[in-house]
Amino acid sequence: QGAHIIVTPEEGIYGWFFTRETIYPCLEDIPDPQVDWIPCTDPGRHFPPEHEEKRLSCEGARAVAQAAQRGCGVSFPGDIQTPPGHGPWFDFFSNIFSPSFLFHEQYKLFVTEKQFNYPKDPEFVTFNASFGYFGIFTCADILYHDPAVVLARRLQVDTILFPAAWGNTLPLLSAVQFHSAWAMGMGVNFLSANTCNSTLEVTGNRISVIQKRKMVTFCFLVTELHSCPCLSPDYPAVVNWKLYASCIEQLPSNDHYFSGVVYHVLFSFMELSDPEGDCAVCQQDLRCHLSYKMAEEQEDDVYVLGAFDGLRIVEGESYLQICTLLKCKSTDLGTCGQPVETAQTKFEMFSLSGTFGTNYVFPEVLYSGVQLATGEFEVM
């Protein structure tokens, strides 16, 4: 159909393997990107003639697909139980076929991937095309300054290509929320190919394209993008969230805080006891402020304003500051933070802001264009 870019999900070639033993038959002897080799025209030089790399290289588009590399100078079979950094080197990385290839070695791994290896230093992989300037990283890399922020801010790529396998379940809907919010916060097009595996709760935005603060989600997507979204005259200006929150009148201290856990981290919460008003909740250096007005308040719906400021040690370590407006599962405040499937209360308006200690602020859900009030919300 004339596509210029094809992005496949994480583990897209060989499936979902999570041990050094099971991935052993899939390991590739990938030549260095500096090697002048086009798999399509010389398929037998490094791989068997009918290898996947040949097919991808012959697609006529830049195809992004992930493979695992066999370490240099390693003879097999070897001790495939050896911990990372010793013995066989199993790299996860993404090839880019155009029609030759270069690759990005995944820099940050989740806990379940720590049996594999990763490069000592982050790599910043980019390539130019007639239709834009592209960067690539994989899955957990998006959560860290290197390489994700560097590609978007310092190298100023137009579009990020992102093979991923992200969970997408309540209460966070992680993939839908974070990927769209990250793209808006960074001002780039974001082509996210997310694995679909309902048994692993890896569902949701299989391919997402973010442009001009809009998001579309399909299992398979063919679309046209503005090659330089941040240079477009109608692209919205960046919002200074910290400045906005700092200008709001300081509210008196509130002693009605309580704690609750959302996705393994401990939030400070305050109940919205009135149908409209202004409130604030603090945790360490973070102050979250909410202005709101409920149009139709339901007795069985309890909402809270929450703040989290600290180190999150789940599937790796990341320092986060989060302001959230969320519905509790029941009128029991002890359920606040648990997954919620339905809500009846309608908000006429709300404005949520925080005194964040960083310029990298990612607004999620409503600001991304997701309409919570329309249609049914299905839990997969």
TrEMBL record:
Phylogenetic classification of the source organism: Eukaryota, Metazoa, Chordata, Craniata, Vertebrata
Record-annotated CN hydrolase domain positions: 1-269
PROSITE patterns: CN_HYDROLASE
Keyword RNA-binding: no
GO terms for MF: pantetheine hydrolase activity
Protein name as it appears in the record: VNN1 Pantetheinase
Record InterPro entries: Biotinidase/VNN, C-N_Hydrolase, C-N_Hydrolase_sf, Vanin_C
Gene3D superfamilies: Carbon-nitrogen hydrolase
Record GO biological process: pantothenate metabolic process
Organism annotation: Anhinga anhinga
A Pfam family this chain is assigned to: Vanin_C
Keyword line: Hydrolase
Family: Belongs to the carbon-nitrogen hydrolase superfamily. BTD/VNN family.
